[in-house]
Amino acid sequence: MIYIGICDDDREHQKLIADMVTKSLFSYDDVEFSCYDSGDQVIQAIEKEEMECELLLLDIRMPGRDGLQTAAYIREHGVDVDLIFVTAATEHVFDGYTYQAFSYLLKPLDYKKISGEMARYMELKQKGADCLHVQIGGKKVQIFLNRVKYFATEGRKIIVYQRGEEENLSFYAKMNDLQETLKDMDFLRAHQSYLVNARYVQSYTRTEMDVGGSLVPIARRYIETVRQRFADSWGGKK
Fold it and tell me: CA-to-CA distance for 145 and 170, rounded, in angstroms?
């Protein structure tokens, strides 16, 4: 599943974009959309920690906070979302570089163009993503690590808690072996039963951490490791 946001003040355009993107990505993955009528709605969703999008298709000319102001907010606050501008405003093409946009698509939309850009986006995303390959039900399954919030043990199984996924995957393995496999990735041992993706950690206390909206316990033996990991970004004070 890929989670895509569409920000456009015209709801007909929202539907048109969603239809084209769904058709474009049919052979890649299922898509779930979040639609926003303005840049202000996008920022409100970010501030409420309700935005799960991996990619945001963003119009520029909108009432209130426009697309460029919204993109500036996203980059200034380090929000982990890719951007594609979808707009009739030809004069802002070079602003796409300023806000590190993946692409800049002009209205009226052309299916061939949007399909080509979405295919390019997915191929680069999959090529650059770190993956974990595991056996589930006799089949080899690829887990994209940038979607994993944390791993937890349950008996002899390891449960995979992923961003935006309601159904969790599980496979047979030992947590120590998984930690060794991911030692060069940004995964952090917080507890004997938990291995956490550090990029999703929003805050922590001496006893628990907020990992993408889920509370994960911190064992006493690991608290110093947690402090050292976040010393640079949070000054080690939590």
Answer: 14
Spatial distance between the Cα atoms of 6 and 70, rounded to a whole number of angstroms: 13
Residue 142's SS3 state is strand
Amino acid at 225: T
Q: pLDDT digits over 145-185, tens only?
A: 888 999 999 999 999 999 877 778 999 999 999 999 998 88
In the chain, beta strands by DSSP E: 2-7, 31-36, 55-58, 82-87, 103-106, 131-136, 139-144, 148-154, 157-162, 169-172, 187-191, 194-197, 201-204, 208-211, 214-217
Residues in the chain predicted with pLDDT less than 50, given as ranges, are: 236-238
Contact 160, 170 (CB under 8 A): yes
| pLDDT tens digits for range 22-39 | 999 988 878 999 999 999
DSSP, residue by residue, 198-223: GGGEEEE-SSEEEETTEEEE--GGGH
Instruction: Report how far residue 15's alpha carbon sits from residue 87's, in angstroms, rounded to the nearest whole number.
Output: 15
